């Protein structure tokens, strides 16, 4: 497929703007380019076809099954998109006086209240723009809390070996050292190892529950108590909130703060890396440190206020407001009955699909699972030579997105599958049949799997070459210059 620049022909255009009816105004010459930008010149029909072709090449939740473990790729209801584009939401500006955007501020306040209720927290900020950004915000709250208490020796964050990869990275960015604690045979936190890890240098624990193996840790109350007794705080990574929302709350488990992924649990677009949204909730003892500003209702009006010991701004203005609107629409549509029902259905779907596959694929932690389950392709690779990568690539030929590969790291040939609650039984049955067909193919003709996918526009790329010598920029060819005429200067 050609790039838009390769379709460009001099003189072609698709501009339908009317002739300017006011005097033209240009910036000062020192702000102008020395050379005009190399923008493509294409007809409108070519432009339209180009972007439609690009859309056809992409695969999203609206195209088919998307069981990307740990990402909760659920369907985003179209009504949420319609609501977010209402003029009262889409046509306002963050610098308007608060008195002129009371509806937007009420939207933010209501969203914070509902997220606090769902998580068992006392206060919420909507500023963080993604999950990892929320992690960073939460750890800054923990750091500020210990600093305010004069407890500057607390420099260590404890992270389980089944944690998301962002957890240790975020802790490092926030200025902490990290200590890993191993999992026990059941896939939960090893309590003895945790007791040995905590001490006077413990600032906190980062944990998601259910964890990355898709398992709810039955020792969660004791885990939080061990950290609290050592003087640390407990941070909840909300990436896996979907199977427990409306049923059990992180705040009731003992967590002091939590981040949420609105683009996972609350069905807003992932957006190809952004805009996402990672609100952070906290208990009362951390509320004074929240990013500024927060929305409060005073004397019948909504105002923006600065918490007493705020860590400052985490993002310009008030976060990704349009994403907040979509999440609020989703929460209000489901309500108190629909939210736990969505969670239960997510758990049901994951267990249903796992049971359909466990006679062929190895389940290192057979469950019951929560929202996702992990398959160990190690035995299959030993028997046939077909790896987790081969199975995932072959899955593409069935018109479905592959599950997460090689994660969590404690399962070496892992495929992590998360169906979400929005998939039908028929879709789950089709996915099971695809996985089963691939298993049999691995035993009959494993060599063919090494070349998968076989039906997609792009086959299997040379991933080593792509990593070592990536081509990330297109450079136009210089036009050929006419040969100099005889006698010309």
UniProtKB/TrEMBL annotation:
Q: Which reaction does it catalyse?
A: N(6)-[(R)-lipoyl]-L-lysyl-[glycine-cleavage complex H protein] + glycine + H(+) = N(6)-[(R)-S(8)-aminomethyldihydrolipoyl]-L-lysyl-[glycine-cleavage complex H protein] + CO2
Q: What is its EC number?
A: 1.4.4.2
Q: What class of enzyme is it?
A: oxidoreductase
One Pfam family this sequence matches: GcvP2_C
Q: SUPFAM superfamilies from the xrefs?
A: PLP-dependent transferases
Q: Where is the Glycine dehydrogenase C-terminal domain?
A: 342-447
N6-(pyridoxal phosphate)lysine found at = 264
> Which InterPro entries does the record cross-reference, listed alphabetically?
GcvPB, GDC-P_C, GDC_P, PyrdxlP-dep_Trfase, PyrdxlP-dep_Trfase_major, PyrdxlP-dep_Trfase_small
Name any cofactors this protein relies on: pyridoxal 5'-phosphate
Q: How does it assemble?
A: The glycine cleavage system is composed of four proteins: P, T, L and H. In this organism, the P 'protein' is a heterodimer of two subunits.
HAMAP family, sorted: GcvPB (MF_00713)
Record-stated family = Belongs to the GcvP family. C-terminal subunit subfamily.
Q: What does this protein do?
A: The glycine cleavage system catalyzes the degradation of glycine. The P protein binds the alpha-amino group of glycine through its pyridoxal phosphate cofactor; CO(2) is released and the remaining methylamine moiety is then transferred to the lipoamide cofactor of the H protein.
Supply the name of the protein: Probable glycine dehydrogenase (decarboxylating) subunit 2
What is the protein's species of origin? Answer: Raoultibacter timonensis
């Amino acid at each position: 497929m050609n790039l838009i620049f390769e379709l460009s022909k001099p003189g072609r255009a698709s501009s339908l703007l009317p002739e300017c009816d006011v005097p033209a105004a240009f910036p000062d010459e020192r702000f102008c380019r020395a050379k005009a930008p190399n923008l493509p010149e294409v007809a409108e029909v070519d432009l339209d076809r180009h972007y439609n072709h690009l859309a056809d090449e992409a695969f999203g939740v609206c195209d088919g099954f998307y069981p990307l473990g740990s990402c909760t790729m659920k369907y985003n209801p179209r009504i949420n998109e319609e609501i977010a584009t209402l003029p009262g939401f889409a046509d306002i500006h963050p610098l308007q006086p608060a008195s002129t955007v009371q509806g937007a501020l009420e939207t933010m306040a209501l969203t914070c209240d509902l997220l606090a209720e769902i998580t068992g927290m006392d206060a919420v900020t909507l500023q963080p723009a993604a999950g990892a950004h929320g992690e960073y915000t939460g750890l800054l709250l923990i750091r500020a809390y210990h600093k305010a208490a004069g407890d500057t020796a607390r420099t260590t964050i404890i992270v389980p070996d089944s944690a998301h990869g962002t957890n240790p990275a975020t802790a490092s960015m926030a200025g902490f050292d990290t200590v890993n604690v191993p999992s026990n045979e059941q896939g939960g936190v090893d309590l003895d190892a945790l007791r040995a890890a905590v001490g006077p240098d413990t600032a906190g624990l980062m944990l998601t529950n259910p964890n990355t193996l898709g398992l709810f840790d039955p020792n969660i109350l004791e885990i939080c108590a061990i950290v609290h007794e050592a003087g640390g705080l407990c941070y909840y990574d909300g990436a896996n909130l979907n199977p427990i929302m409306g049923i059990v709350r992180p705040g009731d488990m003992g967590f002091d703060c939590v981040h949420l992924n609105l683009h996972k649990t609350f069905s807003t677009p992932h957006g190809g890396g952004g805009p996402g949204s990672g609100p952070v909730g906290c208990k009362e003892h951390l509320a004074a440190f929240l990013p500024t500003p927060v929305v409060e209702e005073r004397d019948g009006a909504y105002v923006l206020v600065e918490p007493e010991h705020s860590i400052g701004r985490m993002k310009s203005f008030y976060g990704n407001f349009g994403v907040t609107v979509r999440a609020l629409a989703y929460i209000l549509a489901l309500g108190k009955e629909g939210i736990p029902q969505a969670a239960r259905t997510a758990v049901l779907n994951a267990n249903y699909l796992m049971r359909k596959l466990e006679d062929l694929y190895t389940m290192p932690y057979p469950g019951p699972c929560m929202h996702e389950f992990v398959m160990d392709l190690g035995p299959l690779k030993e028997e046939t030579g077909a790896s987790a990568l081969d199975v995932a690539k072959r899955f593409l030929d069935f018109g479905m997105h592959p599950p997460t590969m090689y994660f969590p790291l404690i399962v070496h040939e892992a495929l992590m599958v998360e169906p979400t609650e929005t998939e039908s039984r028929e879709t789950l049955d089709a996915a099971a049949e695809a996985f089963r067909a691939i298993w049999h193919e691995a035993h009959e003709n494993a060599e063919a799997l090494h070349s998968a996918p076989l039906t997609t526009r792009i086959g299997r790329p040379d991933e080593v070459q792509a990593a070592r010598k990536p081509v990330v920029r297109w450079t136009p060819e210089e036009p050929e210059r006419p040969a100099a005429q005889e006698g010309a200067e």
